[in-house]
Amino acid sequence: MSITQSEFDLVRKLAFDEAGIVLEHDKQYLVESRLQSLAKQTSHESPSSLIGQIARDIRLKQKVVEAMTTNETTFFRDHEPFEMLKNEILPALIQARQETRQLRFWYAACSTGQEPYSMLMLLAEHFPQLASWNVTHLATDISKDVIAKAKEGEYSQFEVNRGLPAVYLTKYFQKKGLHWKVSDALREQLRFQELNLNRTWVGIPKADIVFLRNVMIYFDLDAKRRIFQQLERTLEPDGYLFLGTAETTLNVTASFQRVAFGRTACYRPAAA
Ligand SMILES: C[S@@+](CC[C@H](N)C(=O)[O-])C[C@H]1O[C@@H](n2cnc3c(N)ncnc32)[C@H](O)[C@@H]1O
Questions:
Q1: What is the pTM for the complete model shown?
Q2: Tens-place pLDDT, residues 219-260
Q3: Alpha carbons 138 and 106: distance in angstroms, whole number
Q4: Whether residues 208 and 240 fall in one domain
């Protein structure tokens, strides 16, 4: 069942005002199909009847915003950033933190958790010395549903087939019915928090490595600038920022500089 132009405009405005997400004018079909799934899930007759309720139901309004997010992710997405971390960045950072023996990772749009779990597996595999360090991993996202799934750490065969080396599957997952569950030892290292990047960040400590991948593409220039401004205060002066392959700081902020490693790159505070 299709939505009217004014319903589409209302949802576009809501996604933009709440989450900073820009839905272009040609996205009516996408919005409709996402609202259809949500209407089914929340026992509403149609997307229109659901939209009619959001002014009176804050949780439903939040669910509409969450339904407008794209949660696509895979284990070891893009591969090369993880190689760069393993071969260059982590050895350098571990050297630089010999005194404090502390490292802080933040996954700022963690979706269903494949990104933080990839990092945890990489650390367990290649940097066992960190087991005696104070290492923290904070994973945040705007969506309650993806955080719940990430916390659960349970993935389908299709999901583990995407990017996860077979040897890691047998080493770090247990079979649970038709699904695979991440080991408790890895899950216990992750702390989750809901966080809307488009608002003032509360409770986000300083970090040495920040993953802000494949989320900035959904925001307009002002939102990106506000996010980078907050990030300036959050990322350590000698820390590292990872964006998605289609994302850049170019023409957005001069506070971070691109550092190339082979065919891939990350960003560092400009003064570092
Ligand atoms: C495409 S996924 C990227 C996941 C992962 N970082 C990766 O690169 O594979 C984008 C994620 O950003 C989240 N997101 C969208 N808008 C957000 C906002 N305003 N604040 C926080 N997270 C947001 C979505 O819920 C979604 O899980």
A1: 0.97
A2: 999 999 999 999 999 999 999 999 999 999 999 999 999 999
A3: 5
A4: yes
